[in-house]
Amino acid sequence: MDHGAMQSTPWNMNLDYAIDWSIALGVPVVLLTVRHLFLSISRAIEDRRQGGQRHALLATVDSTEVDTDELEVDIPTRLSKSSAATARWSYSRIENWITNKASATLYLGSVVHLVAGATLFALIFLSILAVLLTSNVNLKLNSNRAGYLGLSCIPFLFAFTGKNSIITLMTGISHHRINQAHRFLGLSLFVLISVHMGCMMKSWWPWKALLAQQLSTPKVRYGLATYTTLCLLVVTAAWPVRRYAYEAFVVSHSLFLVFLVLVGLHTPYAMRFTAAGIFFYLINVLTGWCVKSKMALAQATVFQDRLTRLRMDRPVAHAPGQHIYVCIPSMSLIQWHPFTISSSDQSSFTVHARAVGGFTKKMCRWPENTQRRVILAGPYGESVQVGRSLDIQKVVFVAAGSGLGYIVPILMDFLQARRQSKASCGHVEIVWCVRDPDEVQWFQEELEMALDAAQGYLDTTEKEKEEAGLIAPDGPETQLSLTIHYTRLSFEDQESLVVPTPPHQYEGSSTSTSGTATMTTEAKKALSNVPFAGDDRVEWVQSRLDVGRYVRDQIEEIDGDRAVDIVGCGPPLMLAQLHNVVAANESLTGCRVNLHTERFYM
What we know:
single chain; 602 residues; alpha/beta; 6-stranded parallel sheet; globular
C-alpha cells in the first residue's frame, strides 16, 4: 500500500507513526461523541419516566384528598427505594462517581492547579507520544520523526479551536475544556518541533561548512521561519499575556495563517495535515454562524468600583447557568469577555462583571445614566438544572463574591420548577461568601426575588396582593436558608464598624466552623444599613467559610439512598476545596452527589 503517496511526497516510514498519533487523538473524540449521544437519549427516557411517576403520584394524592404534609413517609423517598439498588449501579451513577473522584485538585496557586483526571489523561497521551517518538529510531539521525508527529497535531489543534468548535457540538464538552485540549496540543506541537529542529542543528553544528550550506537552503530557511512563528504564538499565548495584554494575544494568534504557509513551504508532506486543519477551522466558523451575533444597548450600575451590573435592552433565549460573550466597541473592538446571564425578563437581561482585569476595571468607570452599544454572542455553556430527580433530598449552593451571578438563575429556575410541580426537592441552602456586607447589594434585587419565590411568590405584585388579602400565595413553599459569610465590616458611608464579640459560640448550623460566632444585638444594629437588615430569612456570620467542613456535613446529612445537588462558583481555591471534599466523601454505597461548578475565567 502506498497510502496515497505521490511523486512529490513518496511514502515515509515516519508517516505510520504520525497516523498512529492521529488515531490516539481521534479515539477519545469518537468515544465522547458516542457517550454524548447515549446520555442524551437516556436522559430523555429518564425525564419522561420520572414525569410519569410524578403525575401519577399527584393524581393519587388528589384522588385520596390527603395533604402531602400529613404523610409520614416522604414521597421521593418512597419512590427512590424501589429502584435504589438499580440506580446505584447504573451507568450514569458510576460515571458521576468517577467524575467526582477525578475532579480532585492539587492547588498550587491561582495559576497552577492540577486536576486528577486531566493530569492523568495528559500523562497517558504524553506516554503514547513518547513511545511513538522514540520507537525504532535514532533522533540524531532521523529527527524527522518528531516533525511528522508535530504535523499530525495540526488538524486536531484547529478542530479544538474557538467557542463554536465542532468538537463541542459532537461531544457536549464545554468550550472551556476544549480550549484546555487546544493548549495541550499547542504545547505538544511546540515541543515536537523543538526536538526536530534541535536534533537537526546539533547534527550540523560540529561541521561549520555543512551548517552554512544547510542554512542557505530554502527548506531550512522556511523551517527556521516556521519555528520562529511558532515560538511567537506560544509566548504570546502564555497566561500573563492573556491576563494583562489580551489584545496582543488576539492579534498575535492571527499568525497561525503565516505558520501554515511557512510549514507548507518547508515540506510538501505538511499539505495533507494543514489542509485537514483548515477544513476543521472552516467547519468551526460555519458552526459559529449558527450562533448569531446581536446588537444591544447596555446601561451600567457600578458598585463600590468593584462590580458592574450591565442591563441589556433585548431578551436572549438561554438556559440557567449559561453565559454570553460581550464586546463593547467603545472600549475595545477585539475583546470578547464571557459573563454569566444572572437574570432576564421578556425585554432585557442582566450580567454582573467583577473588576479583576483591565477590561472589567474599565467597565467600573462607566458613566451613570449612559447607554453604550454592545455586541453579544451566545449563549454558551451547559444548562444546569437542580432538584428535578425524585431522589434529591437537598440542593446546596456555595458562592463567593460575584460567583452568585452564576447561582441566581439556577436557583430561580429551580423555584419556578417547584411552582410547576416539576421539582420535588423542597430544601435549599445557600452560602455566600463576601468580603464585607456592603457587597450584598450587588445581587440584592435577585436575592429578594428568590426569597419571595421560595414562599410561593414569583413577583412583587403577587406579594403585594397577598399582603392586602386579595390572593393567597400560589405554589408550594420551599425551605430556603441564606447564610452570608463576611470577613470585615466597611461601608461607603461609614469609616468603620466593629462587631462586638458575642458571649457564646455559633452552634447548631451546618455552616458553623471552629471559632465562628453569631452576632449580638449590638452587631445587628451595626448592620442596620446593609441589605436584608432585620430579615429573619438571612443569617449573617462573621468568619471565613470552611468549605471542606461545610460540604462534608451536608453530604453526611443525606440518606444513603438519596442524593444531593451541589452548585458552586468562585475562585480556584474555593472550587479546589469543593471538589476535594466531594471526591473524598462520595461512595457508590452512599448517597449520590451531583456536583456542578463554575470558576472565574479571565
